[in-house]
Amino acid sequence: MKKLRVLGVFILSLVIALPGVKAAGPTASSSLDYSRCMAFSDTFKTITLNEGDYYYKSCYRATCSHNVYLKANMVATSAYRCQNGNGNPYTQVTSDGCKGYSGSCGTKNTTYCTKVEYVDCNRTSSGAKYETKTTKPITSVMTKRTTKKTTTRRTTKKSTTSRRTTTKKLTTTTKKTTTTKTTTTKKTTTIKGKSDNTNVKKFLINGVDIGFQNSKSNYAIKLPTEETSVDITIELEDSKAKYEIKGDKDIPEENSEIVVMITAENKSQREIKISVSRYSGENDECNLANIYNEQYNIDFSRTVYDYKLTLPKNVKSLDLEIVPVDQENATYEILNNENLKNKSKIEIIVTAQNGNTCTYSITIKKDSNTWKYVVLIVILVAVLGVSIYFLYKYLKKSKGKYKYE
After folding, report:
1. With 50 as the cut, is the pLDDT of residue 147 above it?
2. What is the pLDDT of residues 332-373, one digit of tens each?
């Protein structure tokens, strides 16, 4: 009984001591269309103090270009941030549906896949516990210095006047510290007594917190081609400061820039730039779900684009049933499906909603009857040869018989 109790305590201690990723979590997928991939993924996420950790889901586009897979994250802005200020949290990929889309590839095609990443804001990237930075260490240093100076005065037995001088020095030190903090937060006042504070308290794009930092003035977002405006919400630290936004309306389809100009109470200014790039909101799925013929088995596979099919000599065309993956938006065209001969190539060109194309081909091999004629001739020659042989034997035997009679 005692051994069981010790074993239980050991297991409990091990569970508490070892930091680990939660067992449960979303499962990533591969070979998705655009809409399903984007529906699964997250946009920008702020992991709050109450949450602590989160399974962040992202969508990637995998394109086979020049026989090499290229993967691109469909969310251009920062994926997530920790509310507790941890800029380098512990992360681990728990489910990856994009593993298969790496390295070399075959015919040009595009598909989508998802990835799930576990983020723990309470730990750093090394796995150590994240400690929130406070101003306590500064207070501790000042206290130690005060103690040392007081001790020195007592050791040297200085008069009360000397102690008062020490107090003045400490006061001077405190003022210097205050001046340093004022410079860091940019809250110093001008001669005219007006604030030059241009700091931003809140910055939202289309209702999403992008994790704005006052030390950073350049950001980037990606918009669907069909969207022509961006809704930007800004809250400034100083209520007397003002801001103006340029370029957030009538955004052109090519890459452009949004400029936010913040003017402080004392008329000093700060500029924030947001680069806007475009991606097509239309579906780029051009793959087929099936190519079917009732009489001949094509053995179709979605990731195979070239096929070979043997047909009788008298077949001049094929009745093909084509099924696109995106049946609502994709279109297709069948070429060279007339007067089929040996080595004819039927091409099926599928065009996605955004103009992306995929080409499937079927190379025809005609079933020739020549071999049948060859076999027939061989049989006839063999029969003729056997007949001549027996005729010769018969004649030779008959000739000897008539000679002796």
Report:
1. no
2. 999 999 999 999 999 999 998 878 889 999 999 987 666 666
